[in-house]
Amino acid sequence: MVGDTLSTNQVTSPMEKKPTPFALNATEWWVKPLAMLEHNWAVIDEKSQLVTVYFFHDGGTTKNPSGFTFRSKDSERYIAIVDSLSFQSFSQAQLALVDNGFRKVAETDDFFTARQPTGTAFDARQTEPGIYSKQGYWIPQIVS
After folding, report:
1. Are the CB atoms for 81 and 121 separated by under 8 Å?
2. Does any domain span residue 66?
3. Which residues, at least 6 apart from 127, have a Cβ–Cβ distance to it below 8 Å?
């Protein structure tokens, strides 16, 4: 669940390297259907004056190796933050998500609710290509 954290960064064998939990202050998932059974996911995180949208792939996976090793049961407990964008306000972040094809999961059918990433977030942005922040798939808002 968004905002879940682990109490320790426990390593159970010398070959395993677990990610450090990334605390999120977000409660609502957003989804963007990309293709048949392929989606991008987002949450809006608001801490003090900083508003950040964090992005996830289906299942909370990464496209590139994250540098962490997981046992099969562990991989279901971690979700990878693969990109992020900062905004001036919560409402600006919401409008930008809508302008870029995202919808609130709570306003969709149960299909998306059952598929949203769950688990403890970890930061994988350094190994991911930055689909929105660097690759040009984000349409900036036009300010009039």
Report:
1. yes
2. yes
3. 62, 64, 65, 66, 67
- Structural domains of the chain, count: 1
Q: What angle do CA 87, 120, 89 make, to 5 degrees?
A: 15
Is residue 65 situated within a structural domain?
yes
Q: What is the pLDDT of residues 91-122, one digit of tens each?
A: 999 999 999 999 999 888 777 777 888 888 99
